[in-house]
């Protein structure tokens, strides 16, 4: 539906989004490691670290030698395994754009806890909907869905640059693309619950993130802020037009210094 590019939402409580950056680096490192493995070893890693509902709910057992971590740990470890570069990139770009402000609203340690619990919530929802499935669930989308839900509850009116249908860059209030994205996850779960994409994990992450932001945000951090933040590129163009330059001088890209 869209790819987020940048928001103009500066950090207020932390200087650097260390946890967000560390999560991106860890996901990238794990993908690089698994991509260097043989195909057989990569499959074994997916089975050993992925979340398998049939195993989690006692309907099946992993063959001897395939278990890498105890089964309860797979509610988290699956979120760091990706099947390809585009699978990884699509998750990480959402984390890069939206994770820093959610981390800012919570603090480093609470954001890490939030991320892990959203991953677990996504896995649990997927498992409850597909208890006998022996297919491993992998990917960070459950955790990322929680980040998206938290962001739209914190900053629904902040303008975000998004690439719509991979073609058209638009600055939109965050609630427009994000609520449409959230609605899409519920809709797809209703019409295609058994597809290749685990919409259940997305919905579980969304619900977990929406609940956790209520209790994990810093004291005094409001929900549904009312300030509209205009991307700097739009402000620069408006100033240039007002000065009679037609917006051609000094225009900046929308993903400049402000972190998103």
Tell me the layout of helices and strands.
Elements: E1 2-7, H1 18-36, H2 39-49, H3 53-56, H4 74-77, H5 85-106, H6 108-129, H7 141-154, E2 159-164, E3 168-173, H8 175-191, H9 199-216, H10 232-242
Antiparallel strand pairs: 1-2, 2-3
Would you kindly provide a written description of the structure presented here, covering whatever features stand out?
- 55% of the residues lie in helices and 7% in strands.
- With 260 residues, the protein is mainly α.
- A hairpin with a 3-residue loop joins strand 2 (159-164) and strand 3 (168-173).
- The longest helix has 22 residues, at 85-106.
- It is globular, with a radius of gyration of 20 Å.
- The model is unreliable at 245-260 (pLDDT under 50).
Which key phrases capture this entry?
mainly alpha, disordered C terminus, 260 residues, globular, 3-stranded antiparallel beta sheet
How far apart the termini lie comes to: 20 Å
The proportion of residues forming helix, as a percent range, comes to: 40-55%
Gyration radius, in Å: 20 Å
How much is the average pLDDT? 88
Helical segment count: 10
Strand content: 5-15%
Helix and strand pattern: EHHHHHHHEEHHH
Largest sheet: 3 strands, antiparallel
Going across the major beta sheet, what is the strand order? 1-2-3
Number of strands: 3
Categorize the overall geometry. Answer: globular
Helix and strand composition category:
mainly alpha
Spans of 5+ residues with little confidence (pLDDT < 50)? 245-260
GO biological process, one term: proteolysis
GO molecular function: peptidase activity
Protein name: Rhomboid family intramembrane serine protease
Pfam family, one: Rhomboid
């Amino acid at each position: 539906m869209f790819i987020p590019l940048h928001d103009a939402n500066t950090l207020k409580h932390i200087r650097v989004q260390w946890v967000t950056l560390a999560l991106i680096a860890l996901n990238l490192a794990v993908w690089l490691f698994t991509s260097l493995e043989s195909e057989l070893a990569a499959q074994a890693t997916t089975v050993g670290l992925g979340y398998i509902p049939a195993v989690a709910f006692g309907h099946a057992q992993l063959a001897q030698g395939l278990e890498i971590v105890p089964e309860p740990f797979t509610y988290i470890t699956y979120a760091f395994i990706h099947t390809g570069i585009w699978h990884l990139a699509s998750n990480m770009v959402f984390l890069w754009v939206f994770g820093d402000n959610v981390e800012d609203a919570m603090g480093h340690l609470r954001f890490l806890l939030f991320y892990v619990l959203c991953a677990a919530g996504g896995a649990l929802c997927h498992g409850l909907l597909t208890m006998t499935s022996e297919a491993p669930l992998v990917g960070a989308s459950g955790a990322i869905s929680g980040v998206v839900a938290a962001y739209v509850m914190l900053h629904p009116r902040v303008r975000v640059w998004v690439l719509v249908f991979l073609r058209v860059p638009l600055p939109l209030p965050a609630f427009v693309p994000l609520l449409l994205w959230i609605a899409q996850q519920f809709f797809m779960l209703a019409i295609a619950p058994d597809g290749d994409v685990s919409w259940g994990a997305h919905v579980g992450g969304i619900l977990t993130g929406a609940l956790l932001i209520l209790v994990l945000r810093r004291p005094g951090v409001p929900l549904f802020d009312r300030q509209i933040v205009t991307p700097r590129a739009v402000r620069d163009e408006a100033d240039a037009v007002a000065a009679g330059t037609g917006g051609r001088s000094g225009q900046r890209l929308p993903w400049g210094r402000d972190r998103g």
